[in-house]
Description:
It catalyses: (sulfur carrier)-H + L-cysteine = (sulfur carrier)-SH + L-alanine. The chain is an alpha/beta fold.
Amino acid sequence: MSFDPYDFRLQFPALARDDLIYLDNAATTHKPTAVLEAMAQFYRQDNANVHRGAHRLSARATRAFEGARHTLARFLNAPASEEVIFTRGTTESMNLLANSLGQMVLDEGALVLVDAWAHHATIVPWQQAAARTGATLKPIPLDSKGRLDEVAFAELLALGPQVVVLTAISNALGARAPVDRWLPKAQAAGAITVVDGAQAVAHEPVDLQALGCDFYAFSGHKMYGPTGIGVLWGRRDLLDAMPPYQFGGEMIQSVSFERSSFNVLPFKFEAGTPAIAEAIGLGAAANWLMAQDRRAIAAHEQALLSYARERLQSLEGLTLYSAFEDNAGSLAFNVDGEHHQDVGIWLDQAGIAVRCGHHCCQPLMSLLGVRGTCRLSIAGYNHHDEIDALVAALTDYLEFLYDDA
Ligand SMILES: Cc1ncc(COP(=O)(O)O)c(C=O)c1O
């Protein structure tokens, strides 16, 4: 395998230091020079508002902004770039959908399914949409092994849900949902399908035409791109039929004091001045990722995660919640009897950044019977020495506990 995480890491200026082991990539990844430069160059050379500007700077900004949309369509293998809607991130993508699609397809007696490890960014917008329309939100439960329950899913589909939302990769556990097998089942049951790809985009190429979902949402900052930008991709016929989500400039065709008419896709869903530099940065991240050997990065990440799982499993006094072979990106654990925050502070003192808490998945934490966990989450630039350092710091912590006892 040609991939070298140490070489790869050289592309990330924020990691050029020896006092930080960054294992919080599911929260946000670091940014490569290619992304930083694309954004800096926009502000240095081209800064102007997009669309309708008469002057050349605006034309250049528009070309760069719309170019980013085309790049993202290619990155996702989307049928058309007009179906790529820029949002602030997964959360805004889900709010847009729950408001607009929710208004269109939910009413009294309708049903929305979300998986048991859904992020609050999925649960809460759909819960609110259900409350507004008289629909019901139900979770797809976990089975006794902690996977999404296939039998329960079939029973829930038999109830004829209008919308099914699946989280491709759980941010709290790293577990994968069987989207390839389940999306066709949900569609056969008549549901509109939505995939939360917030964690998936960073770890595997996305091919929307192969996947066959109706909507796909993700954030730029978890795939080496900037914060403040993300995407909602949707099937054109559905997006065309949906009402606008926010109102104002850009999203209109004509306005009078009596009435307004609305723009075509994608502008109908992009009210106001967009996050121009961020969209350009996200386009740069997508271009940069497409130029990497993604298969090799994924293999490296998988090897690293297996190694971390084995090493953590060997520690007595530590409970691992992410026990599956096909996890991606993250592993969750607790030191038995210890508050996750205390463990996080200990690790921080050793220069190791992990995330501790409920990971915006409180319902999942209830199912696991915990208030929170510690989560390590990796990216291509992490390496085995960093896992060894984490295990050494946890070993010290356990020794400190047992010495104290
Ligand atoms: C699976 C998943 N969905 C949704 C979100 C929300 O993403 P954002 O905060 O970027 O909108 C996250 C963020 O952690 C996530 O991991």
